[in-house]
Specification:
Structural class: mainly alpha
Distance between the termini: 36 Å
Helix content: 55-70%
Largest sheet: none
Shape: elongated
Order of helices and strands: HHHHHHHHHHHHHHHHH
Strand content: under 5%
Number of strands: 0
Amino acid sequence: MAEQVISPDINFVKDIIASGGDTLKKCFQCATCSVVCNATPDNRPFPRKEMIYAQWGLKDKLISSPDIWLCHNCNDCTKYCPRGARPGDVLSIMRQKFIQENAMPGIMGKIVTQPKMTLIALAIPFVLFLLVLGLTGHLRIPEGQIVYSKFFPIPYIEAVFMSAVGLAGIAYLASLYRFWNGMSKGNTQSYTKGFIPAFIETLIEFFMHSRFAKCGPNADRRIVHLLVFYGFVGLFITTVWVTVYYYVPKINTPIALSDPLKWVANISAIALLAGAGMLIFNRLKDKGFISKSSPFDWTFAVMILLLGVSGFLTETIRLAGIATLAYPIYFIHLLLVFYTIVYFPYSKLAHMGYRALAITYSKMTNRDIRI
């Protein structure tokens, strides 16, 4: 047998423990977690081996592994772990560390994935918006009817957001490409399915959130994630829709409440608010076993809730005609929108891309999921 040199990264182990994976060292490799998990492949089960890699500080193995993304944090493993090692929580921390390590540019990964840096992350769009409004002479509360485009004209919003989203999108695609290469590099299995059919199957699973149905103690998370997911989908549709309105029929804002666009927008906002509220409630409720959400997860939940609340207030305060409150709330809402979509590659939402590739890779290599 060929010799294999193992180079532990002790700082990586300490970082996982400091970030919320403080139970990592309690694991004594009984494999109960892999036995009870309904989402793990039979021919290469997790999370036992991931707990070994983390304990030994084998960062490179974790960074290139698709299995930390196949985990949906159902917490069956945490519930039945005889040592209280909370494997589900530890894998959640691993995913956070992966996003940080794989981020491009690296500085953005460090800013957005670290909850203590949230104010700095928000300060970036805050300063940017103030500069744009100041240089264009819009740094004031407009008189007359409340029309948000008078305060922050749509062309300026588009210029800022499209530029920022474009750069972030390129960085995200580069990160996904690096992740795919990492998985493929260590592949010893033959491909039994092409990328396109495997990816289409993955997308269908995403739209249905079918893998969450396999969860035991946390099966209700499927409803929560569906509400948040389709809330975002609906709001994305309305964002594109309002842009079309602005340039094609040239309909001025604010859009009438009777317009179908408003129906979709408000229903989507309600779904997002309900999902965010349920997400926080689920993290706080007694599940019958100990499970702790990391600060990274909490930051995401709170930010999504604030996004929904600020959007709701932006509309209701405008309808109430309170200009001195409406414009500042709108400004705050734009900050949260920027945080959500521009920092997508570095936040909890980055899971979607990495998880989609991991599931696609799993299907291509025929790593069957339990039924």
